[in-house]
Amino acid sequence: xxxxxxxxxxxxxxxxxFNRFDLIHVPQKASEREFGYxxxxxxxxxxxxxxxxxxLRLLLMKEVPSDVYCSNAYYSFPGLPMAEKDxxxxxxxxxxxxxxxGLPCRQDHTVFKCSxxxxxxxxxxxxxxxxxxxxxxxxxxxxxxxxxxxxxxxxRLVDVxxxxxxxxxxxxEVYFSGNEGFHMRxxxxxxxxxxxxxxxxxxxxxxxxxxxxxxxxxxxxxxxKVSLPSTDEKGWRGRVARKLFSSKSKAPKxxxxxxxxxxxxxxxxxxxxxxxxGVKIDPKVTMDIHRIFRLEGSINSKSGLAxxxxxxxxxxxxxxxxxxxxxxxxxxxxxxxxxxxxxNKKFGPYKNEKVSMPKYAAxxxxxxxxxxxx
Amino acid sequence: MLxxxxxxxxxxxxxxxxxxxxxxxxxxxxxxxxxDWKPIVEKAYGRIVVASSGQxxxxxxxxxxxxxxxxxxxxxxxxxxxxxxxxxxxxFSLAESRRAERYLQQDLYASREKKNLELPLKIIRDIFxxxxxxxxxxxxxxxxxxxxxxxxxxxxEWKLVNRRISNGYVYLSAHETVRLxxxxxxxxxxxxxxxxxxxxxxxxxRQRVQDLVALAKKFSxxxxxxxxxxxxxxxxxxxxxxxxxLPHSGRFLLATYLLSKGxxxxxxxxxxxxxxxxxxxxxRYQLEHISGSSGSGTKYQCPxxxxxxxxxxxxxxxxxxxxxxxxxxxxxxxxx
Lengths: 374, 336
Known about the structure:
The structure holds two protein chains of two kinds.
Chain A: H1 3-19, E1 35-38, E2 44-48, H2 53-63, E3 67-71, E4 73-75, E5 87-90, E6 92-97, H3 106-109, E7 110-114, E8 120-122, E9 136-140, H4 144-164, E10 172-176, E11 181-186, H5 196-207, H6 235-244, H7 251-277, H8 283-286, E12 292-294, E13 308-309, H9 318-321, E14 329-336, E15 340-342, E16 345-347, E17 350-358, H10 359-367, E18 371-373
Antiparallel strand pairs in A: 1-2, 1-3, 3-12, 4-5, 6-11, 7-8, 7-9, 10-11, 10-13, 14-17, 14-18, 15-16
Helix pairs in contact in A: 1-10
Chain B: H1 6-11, H2 16-25, H3 29-32, H4 38-52, H5 66-83, H6 86-110, H7 114-128, E1 133-135, E2 138-142, H8 143-150, E3 165-166, E4 169-172, H9 174-180, H10 182-194, H11 206-216, E5 223-225, H12 231-241, H13 248-260, H14 265-268, H15 280-291, H16 305-310, E6 331-333
Antiparallel strand pairs in B: 1-2, 2-4, 3-4, 5-6
């Protein structure tokens, strides 16, 4: 980001951090966690200790970071280098990102921005129409469908966590990530001591990764007895059964087919079920026990939207509720070939034109690299 | 209170109660050196030989006198400690844990009346801090307790996704419950043996101790190594050669694998030249960091097959059977 844009975005962030103290809190067990932050055009500063809200606010006002992070782990000495921190446990965390859901809408609002002249287009082209350059960076924006599909994943994840893993609803916190998806945090003492390896297996469970026919009653040897799960079972066995036997009247025929087709075919069926029913979390996040994860209440510099908690997921609209920057009018040069919707207002498409728009929308364009401040 | 009899101690001679029982008999190490006890020393030696060959030592708890079963375990430990061969201690711990596993399983399975379950469940709870509950003839344990142990198994059936689960609990058979704690049982027995201190041993033990030292020498593995890359590494190299993007985790795999095979940072760095975001300085910095020659000095290990599977970087072929880390690919034991 160029200096002029940076100064503008920083001042907008500072204004937010100054005005919205009410939204910015350290998480529980703050003094045992590691904090970190980034400033625009600069590297990560981490291994910080922040004990309370007051210290956090001081940091935000002094440094005006582009992004703020806090560890999911608790340590005896969070301020020391990694090897000396003395890991004590970590919240279970999950990241659901619209860009990982394989949604067809993505190609309608992913902007390919020419790396040399900055011209943006929708849809991949072999070379820039303006300058013939062949290098592009992709800039992703988010639409209603992206959000509703991500919410869908959140709902399914909550179901697996509560009915399979025995986690209580009140132990689950759901956040809009501030850009294209949702973050979840589980604070349950039974799970906090699990290492990375164990969390990888939990992630596989949630994604329905690695299921074998034997576990669902279809043995490798064709002469062995088949005993398929029933629809009233808990966990994946029940989910798989409900998927297979969605119609009660056809159940006997479906069972017969499964038995006749055998192990290999059923493995293919399980792999298909994984694609449609497995929860699409980012496993790297869940298995990381030393991650510094975006801090709730802070602004995501990829969009200028805030990471905020969703208490009612169904009615939650991030383009309304997480859009918390000021709304005074700003002049900006925008090249955004897709339409953006923020606070129920539509912006664009713009073809390299000068536009006056509210500060929150201008910051969004700048953060996405689709505009320049005038 | 639960009464543990000598028959139980013969089955589970590693329990602290076994020590207390022996103390009550008043038998000393010196006395064991007397020729009257020779059969026990021979029994103990036999127990180790059987264990080292990978077999499970069999006791007939109904026919034999259980005191000698218990004593032979204690004497075996004395012999092992005196011989000081780590490989034998490991093999013995493993075989003894298998033996105990068999009894635990029988005790869990034979009768599920509460009375009979008390001892095996107490052993599991006290030694391994796992609370096993019973739900309609099945054993259930909490998911975190389960995964902490199951992740060490490489068969797919142990993955959580392949288990029956409800409300935070995993359902297991008697066999599976015991299998789950086998490694810890071995470790527990191993630690118990390690913690024993022996200052001197009776003269009559010496010959058998020497025999054990000779026995241990038979177990040094020889391996031969193929120069073929495992499919996951091949895939990574192919992706880079095509100039396509290999995710960070894939690059990490290549770097750690090649470093573990003795290649240097200079040899590895050019491999990444075709990457769309190649930067020579960054690549070298990261390779040096991974190799442990800069930064914290930690030398990073090649990720396990399990981890690569989770990251969709595993492209297993039949030759991958039986390995748990790509660095093991192509290594075969000459002896087996």
